[in-house]
Amino acid sequence: MEQPSAEAEYASGISNSDAPWDLFDSRAYLDHNYQDLRQDDRQIIMAVRDYFCEHFRHRQPAGKLSGIDVGSGTNLYPSLSLLPWCSDITLYERSAGNVVWLEREIQHYSSNWDRFWQLFTDREPYRRVGDPRGRLSGLATVEKGDLFDLRPGGWSIGTMFFVAESLSTARTEFEEALAKFIAALTPGAPFAAAFMENSEGYRVGDLEFPAYPVEEPQVRDCLAPRTDDLVITRLGFPGEPLRDGYTGMILACGVTS
Question: Which residues form the signal peptide (predicted)?
Answer without folding.
Answer: none
